[in-house]
From TrEMBL:
<keyword id="KW-0106">Calcium</keyword>
<keyword id="KW-0472">Membrane</keyword>
<dbReference type="InterPro" id="IPR000778">
    <property type="entry name" value="Cyt_b245_heavy_chain"/>
</dbReference>
<dbReference type="InterPro" id="IPR017938">
    <property type="entry name" value="Riboflavin_synthase-like_b-brl"/>
</dbReference>
<dbReference type="GO" id="GO:0005509">
    <property type="term" value="F:calcium ion binding"/>
</dbReference>
<dbReference type="InterPro" id="IPR050369">
    <property type="entry name" value="RBOH/FRE"/>
</dbReference>
<feature type="transmembrane region" description="Helical">
    <location>
        <begin position="495"/>
        <end position="516"/>
    </location>
</feature>
<dbReference type="GO" id="GO:0005886">
    <property type="term" value="C:plasma membrane"/>
</dbReference>
<dbReference type="GO" id="GO:0004601">
    <property type="term" value="F:peroxidase activity"/>
</dbReference>
<keyword id="KW-0274">FAD</keyword>
<keyword id="KW-0521">NADP</keyword>
<feature type="transmembrane region" description="Helical">
    <location>
        <begin position="133"/>
        <end position="152"/>
    </location>
</feature>
<feature type="transmembrane region" description="Helical">
    <location>
        <begin position="265"/>
        <end position="292"/>
    </location>
</feature>
<dbReference type="InterPro" id="IPR013112">
    <property type="entry name" value="FAD-bd_8"/>
</dbReference>
<feature type="transmembrane region" description="Helical">
    <location>
        <begin position="313"/>
        <end position="335"/>
    </location>
</feature>
<dbReference type="Pfam" id="PF01794">
    <property type="entry name" value="Ferric_reduct"/>
</dbReference>
<keyword id="KW-0479">Metal-binding</keyword>
Length: 693
């Protein structure tokens, strides 16, 4: 492939041609443009005498040292060797190969059952799921108790003789509906949940699963509606209408002297409110389904469903539930077969959660007006990503890993969209990275590109740095938050394993910046300190101080492993400054950075072998990765997660590792499975947390 004229000598042009072919096969246009530079790099390395060619055995020796070259980036992906040293190794006939580490032979997929192994699995499962288990058990028990209580009550009523078991079944389902209509509001009370994350409640309640619990309750509500409305419409109403005068006489006090008709039952207050509630909830639940909610980016739906799909349809239809709750109060007050006020219990269930939810929404509206942020800088990065840097509003405090809602009144005075905060709590600004996917983000990008960006740099534009008309001011942004997220609890773990897929890296950038700020602070305190010795424990912790307090809060976290997996090489431009700063400031190797580019063939593929060599040589000479343009090495293809988990467990035995993932749901299953498996098989405990974008 290289020696095209078969003369045993390889010229710079031939090396350059092979680099171009490799870059084309892996769709790396940037490398194609710099192929001549990298060909010269290889010639300088292997042809120090300046003969103008290299021999085949020299290139072969370079390629045979693949494993040695590829290890230069561990653990931090910053240069650990020199080109001169590698040249000496090649001249000596190649470096000695390291013994390959092979895993112990497996016993097959189905291992022999043993009480000890079963007990270990049960213990890990209990540690992982006991919070979910007791919450779900309490919820199911409450529904069962309410259903049984109301069923028994109406089983003994006079109406049972006419309506039969349809009546107590419908009433029992109605009682569970009251409970669930109250509970479904609690998992979306974001201000309350954010406060709970900072209290003892986080040890007892699985706050990371709030949205999942919200969906489970919604499914229970749908089942309750079918059971309640179905028994009324198809069973006890027809039996009431068909009852004899003697059978109806005991019920005359509830329905009137004349027997009601089916139409009169449905046209009354209870019937109308019930039917309207069912219709509104059916619309809201249907548009909240994942295929419809993500239709613009996930799938194409036939007309007219295409106009009813998307996040906007989901958002607006969910606000129809405000009408549902008002109708529910009316429906519950005029309920059949009840005469005393204290038997009308619907308002008792809903009053507190509904007031809490309304109060939060009111507070959020008032707070967002006070948190109107001034836009300081906006950058348009490769991959259709907007980076917005805003002034930090007075009194705005947040933790790394949290997120905010943004509203642009120019686009819509009603829509709020969540975005992870990528700045650190100690910064005097707030930054977010927004990937333009949906209608709202596309419109936001359009506003900046059309009105504020200079057209001279189409691939990377920046508001505040490029020349723009001074009479134009950027659009107004309102900030609502911050709100709690799983990643904010990173301080509770000895070691962090942060995994971000594409734009899912955003919540972890704030964590890396926070850790980096504390590394800087620790270095400053060490320089100012007059102490000559420190305890081993304190040397492995970070200290946090604030301007308002002289107290120090110990960081439990001693190591962090960050894995960023993306398909587009341009994505590495998003957080280039953070990567370089970590590589420069983290002298002790506290933070390990691993970039993975999945659009490239795996590292042991022939189509990437030469690129790996160029990558290693360029980093050794210039300290820069040829793909990302940072000091952090870019790995090719997807990570082998089992190997990474094994390496981390071996490196941190007996530690508690917090595994935080943000991305698509597909990878979450694999990471969760490995966390449970490695917790069972090793002394290291992995605790998995996820959030989807």
């Amino acid at each position: 492939m290289v020696d095209t004229n078969v003369d045993g000598r390889i010229t710079r042009e031939e090396v350059q041609e092979l680099i171009v072919l490799s870059a084309s096969a892996n769709k790396l246009s940037k490398l194609k443009e710099q192929a001549e530079e990298y060909a010269l790099l290889i010639m300088e390395e292997l042809d120090p005498e300046g003969l103008g060619y290299i021999e085949l055995w020299q290139l072969e020796a370079l390629l045979l040292q693949r494993d040695a070259y590829m290890s230069y980036s561990r653990p931090l992906s910053s240069g650990s060797g020199s080109a001169a040293q590698w040249s000496q190794d090649i001249g000596d006939g190649g470096a000695q190969e390291k013994p390959a580490t092979t895993a112990a032979p497996g016993r097959g997929r189905w291992q022999r059952w043993s009480p000890r192994r079963a007990a270990g699995r049960a213990r890990v499962a209990a540690e992982e799921n006991w919070r979910r288990a007791w919450v779900l058990a309490l919820w199911v028990a409450a529904m069962a108790a309410l259903f049984a209580w109301r069923f028994a009550q109406y089983r003994r009523s006079v109406a049972f003789e006419v309506m039969g078991y349809c009546l107590p079944t419908a009433k029992g389902a109605a009682e569970t509906l009251k409970l669930n209509m109250a509970l479904v509001l609690l998992p979306v009370c974001r201000i309350t949940l954010t406060r709970l994350r900072s209290s003892w409640a986080r040890f007892l309640v699985p706050l990371d699963d709030c949205i999942a619990f919200h969906k489970v309750i919604a499914m229970a509500i749908a089942a309750g509606i079918c059971l309640h409305a179905g028994n009324h419409l198809a069973c006890d109403f027809p039996r009431l209408i068909a009852s004899s005068p003697g059978e109806y006489r005991p019920l005359a006090g509830f329905f009137g002297e004349e027997r009601p008709t089916y139409r009169s039952l449905l046209s009354g207050v209870v019937g109308v409110t019930g039917v309207v509630m069912v219709v509104l909830m059916a619309v809201s639940f249907t548009l909240a389904a994942r295929p419809l909610r993500r239709a613009p980016t996930r799938t194409r739906l036939p007309s007219p469903l295409g106009h009813l799909a998307g996040f906007n349809a989901f958002w607006y239809s969910h606000h129809l539930l405000v009408v549902v709750y008002l109708l529910l109060l009316v429906h519950g007050w005029f309920i059949f077969l009840v005469t005393k006020w204290y038997q009308r219990t619907t308002w008792m269930y809903i009053a507190v959660p509904f007031a809490l939810h309304v109060g939060e929404r009111t507070l959020r509206a008032l707070r967002s007006k006070a948190y109107a942020a001034k836009i300081l800088k906006v950058c348009l990065l490769p991959g259709n990503v907007l980076t917005i840097t805003m002034s930090k509003p007075y009194g705005f405090r947040y933790r790394s890993g949290q997120y905010v809602f943004l509203q642009c009144p120019t686009i819509s005075p009603f829509e709020w969209h969540p975005f992870s905060i990528t700045s650190a709590p100690g910064d005097d600004y707030i930054s977010v990275h927004i990937q333009t996917r949906g209608d709202w983000t596309q419109e936001l990008k359009h506003i900046f590109v059309e009105n504020y960006f200079s057209p001279c740099l189409p691939s990377r534009a920046s508001f505040g740095e490029l020349g723009m008309p001074e009479q134009k001011s950027p659009p107004r942004l309102l900030v609502d938050g911050p709100y709690g997220a799983p990643a904010q609890d990173f301080r509770n773990y000895d070691v962090l394993l942060l995994v971000g897929l594409g734009i899912g890296a955003t919540p972890f950038i704030s964590i890396l910046r926070d850790l980096l700020n504390n590394i800087k602070l620790a270095d400053e305190l060490m320089d100012l300190s007059m102490e000559t010795s420190r305890s081993e424990d304190s040397s492995n912790t970070f200290s946090v101080s604030t301007a308002s307090s002289n107290k120090r809060r110990a960081y439990r976290t001693s190591r962090a492993h960050f894995y960023w997996v993306t398909r587009e090489p341009g994505s590495f431009e998003w957080f280039k400054s953070v990567m370089d700063e970590v590589a420069e400031m983290d002298k002790k190797g506290v933070i390990e950075l691993h970039n993975y580019l999945t659009s490239v063939y795996e590292e042991r593929d022939a189509r990437t072998t030469l690129l790996s060599m160029v990558q290693a040589l360029n980093h050794a000479k210039n300290g820069i990765d040829i793909v990302s343009g940072t000091r952090v090495r870019t790995h090719f293809a997807r990570p082998n997660w089992r190997e990474e988990f094994t390496r981390i467990s071996a490196k941190h035995p007996g530690s508690t590792v917090g595994v935080f993932y943000c991305g698509k749901p597909t990878l979450a299953k694999e990471l969760k499975k490995l966390s449970l498996e490695m917790s069972r098989k090793t002394m290291t405990r992995f605790h998995f947390h996820k959030e989807y974008f």
